[in-house]
Amino acid sequence: MFSEYSKIVKDGLWLNNQAFVALLGLCPLLAVSNTIINGLGLGLATTMTLVVSNTVVSLIRNFVPDEIRLPVFVLVIASVVTMIELAMNAWFFGLYKILGIFIPLIVTNCSIIGRAEAYASKQRADKAFLDGLSMGLGFTFALVTLGSLREIIGSGTLFAKAELMFGEAAKTWQIDVITDYSGMLLAILPPGAFIGLGLLIALKNIIDTKVEQRKPAHIQIPIQAAQEQ
């Protein structure tokens, strides 16, 4: 049982990361990831949508006829996104204005409807919940990582405008990574997002290759020791 849950978490966070591997949800990923705070805000909204929609879809899967399955799933997702949008409008208005259309567009995110159809509709609620949480956090990780890279290169800062999410006390959280830096406009513009994402995907592939190369060495050592004995 633990191995099943562990696999779900690994798939969501790394092995089947929706941004770095499946390459889904790239429109919001590239559009709003110019700062950490923007990426974190959209990532958490997407994670909440995945968690709630996956859980609800799993709970109702046996009561929904196959003929109307997808429309019902979309309706569930749209309802969840609407609640999240209203909550952000009420409590995080500044961040809500910056993210703009990309909050309601979560409804059309392929990764969300994909997880609802491919996984949540076939699994128990606990597994669907964990899958949604893992996939959401994996997507948030991609947003925050890309946002960090673009913010540092583009503006030389980290956690700029953190007060939009964490309140007035967070105004002092900004870190000037590069002092007296005039910035690089390319990193903030859409082409910089494509370049940054490509570099991060390349880095992930290098890490995965290194890990795979090390696996045979660990397996062969005990085999050789047993043969010598």
TrEMBL record:
<feature type="transmembrane region" description="Helical">
    <location>
        <begin position="37"/>
        <end position="60"/>
    </location>
</feature>
<protein>
    <recommendedName>
        <fullName>Ion-translocating oxidoreductase complex subunit E</fullName>
        <ecNumber>7.-.-.-</ecNumber>
    </recommendedName>
</protein>
<dbReference type="GO" id="GO:0022900">
    <property type="term" value="P:electron transport chain"/>
</dbReference>
<dbReference type="InterPro" id="IPR003667">
    <property type="entry name" value="NqrDE/RnfAE"/>
</dbReference>
<keyword id="KW-0249">Electron transport</keyword>
<feature type="transmembrane region" description="Helical">
    <location>
        <begin position="98"/>
        <end position="116"/>
    </location>
</feature>
<feature type="transmembrane region" description="Helical">
    <location>
        <begin position="128"/>
        <end position="149"/>
    </location>
</feature>
<comment type="subunit">
    <text>The complex is composed of six subunits: RnfA, RnfB, RnfC, RnfD, RnfE and RnfG.</text>
</comment>
<dbReference type="Pfam" id="PF02508">
    <property type="entry name" value="Rnf-Nqr"/>
</dbReference>
<keyword id="KW-1003">Cell membrane</keyword>
<dbReference type="GO" id="GO:0012505">
    <property type="term" value="C:endomembrane system"/>
</dbReference>
<keyword id="KW-1278">Translocase</keyword>
<dbReference type="InterPro" id="IPR010968">
    <property type="entry name" value="RnfE"/>
</dbReference>
<keyword id="KW-0812">Transmembrane</keyword>
<keyword id="KW-0813">Transport</keyword>
<keyword id="KW-1133">Transmembrane helix</keyword>
<keyword id="KW-0997">Cell inner membrane</keyword>
<dbReference type="GO" id="GO:0005886">
    <property type="term" value="C:plasma membrane"/>
</dbReference>
<feature type="transmembrane region" description="Helical">
    <location>
        <begin position="181"/>
        <end position="203"/>
    </location>
</feature>
<keyword id="KW-0472">Membrane</keyword>
<comment type="function">
    <text>Part of a membrane-bound complex that couples electron transfer with translocation of ions across the membrane.</text>
</comment>
<feature type="transmembrane region" description="Helical">
    <location>
        <begin position="12"/>
        <end position="31"/>
    </location>
</feature>
<comment type="similarity">
    <text>Belongs to the NqrDE/RnfAE family.</text>
</comment>
<feature type="transmembrane region" description="Helical">
    <location>
        <begin position="72"/>
        <end position="92"/>
    </location>
</feature>
